[in-house]
Specification:
two-stranded parallel sheet; 14 helices; single chain; binds phenylalanine; 5-stranded mixed sheet; about 10% strand; binds cobalt (II) ion
């Protein structure tokens, strides 16, 4: 429904009412189709924490979730709530929501023509992809701390660096489990094609997570990633970020040195060295 997409907020925190009863039957059907397709694909590909989150919040039952109901459940588990916003919100507004354990989710759902790819985050990306991991206490704490860290990064004028951390963890992170590599990033888990590409394609690098390395790495917003970063656990991610004072890091990062998305550095610990074939072919086709 185009009108929903254009709805704006007149509140300082940019939230709107989800207005759940106004979704059409077709919009609920789109959610159900996306859920069924993506969930089936993710069994054996996504980290258990993500799948358990889907189940704990009953995201597969009955169309587009009612965020008030989801929030009441989620709040009992980890103190998080989900609020509706029209679409992307300004950085400081976004960080302040996270710092207060509110996850801002787009209210609209993609159309049938956009099932496989959509530029702006809709409710499927946000609620199917991001919200399940907020049932995990460690990941939930990471997200809150990220919000506080974002406000701090703005003061240091290092938002670009901190945005790369979000990108390569919250959106496109992989995790090593006893059963092999698994997806936890929402940008992957909500995407049909990238859920396959990120794990199976020989093209991208898969590099062990290193905080400063990630903070210096540029990323692609228009195509599959050329490198993914692999954590061993949410605890590892937590210790490397929440338990670290970024001030000395931000000092070093002010030299502005950045790595291209496909670059492999001498110090990288590689889980898989990418062939780069996919990115090269795409570049040639342009
Ligand atoms: N510990 C970081 C700081 O001192 C904040 C942060 C937490 C950043 C978690 C990212 C993720 O700024
Ligand atoms: Co997202």
């Amino acid at each position: 429904m185009i009108l929903r997409q254009r709805r704006t907020s007149d509140r300082p925190d940019f939230t709107i009412d989800q207005d759940w009863s106004s979704y059409t039957a077709d919009e609920h059907a789109i959610w159900n189709e996306l859920y069924a397709r993506q969930r089936k694909l993710l069994v054996g590909r996504a980290d258990d924490a993500l799948l358990e989150g889907h189940d704990a919040l009953n995201l597969g039952r009955g169309g587009i979730p009612n965020l008030e109901k989801i929030s009441d459940e989620l709040e009992k588990m980890t103190g998080w709530r989900v609020v509706s916003v029209p679409s992307l919100v300004p950085d400081d507004v976004f960080f302040r929501h996270l710092a207060n354990r509110r996850f801002p989710a787009g209210a609209f759902i993609r159309t049938r023509e956009e099932l496989d790819y959509i530029e702006e985050p809709d409710i499927f990306h946000d609620v199917f992809g991001h919200v399940p991991l907020l049932t995990n206490p460690v990941f939930g704490d990471y997200m809150q701390a990220y919000g506080e860290g974002g406000l701090r990064a703005l003061k240091f004028d290092r938002l670009k660096n901190l945005a790369a951390l979000y990108w390569y963890t919250v959106e496109f992170g992989l995790i090593e489990t006893p059963n092999g590599l698994r997806i936890y990033g929402a940008g992957i888990s909500s995407s049909l094609k990238e859920s396959i590409f990120a794990l199976d394609d020989p093209s991208p690098n898969r590099i062990r997570f290193d905080l400063e390395r990630v903070l210096r790495t540029n990323y692609r917003i228009d195509d599959f990633q050329e490198s993914y970063f692999v954590i061993r656990s949410y605890d590892e991610l937590f210790r490397a970020t929440v338990d670290t004072d970024f001030a000395p890091l931000y000092d070093r990062l002010s030299d502005g040195k950045r790595h291209a998305p496909a670059t492999v550095l001498a110090g990288d610990q590689l889980v898989h060295r990418g062939t780069g074939v996919y990115a090269r072919e795409r570049a040639r086709a342009k």
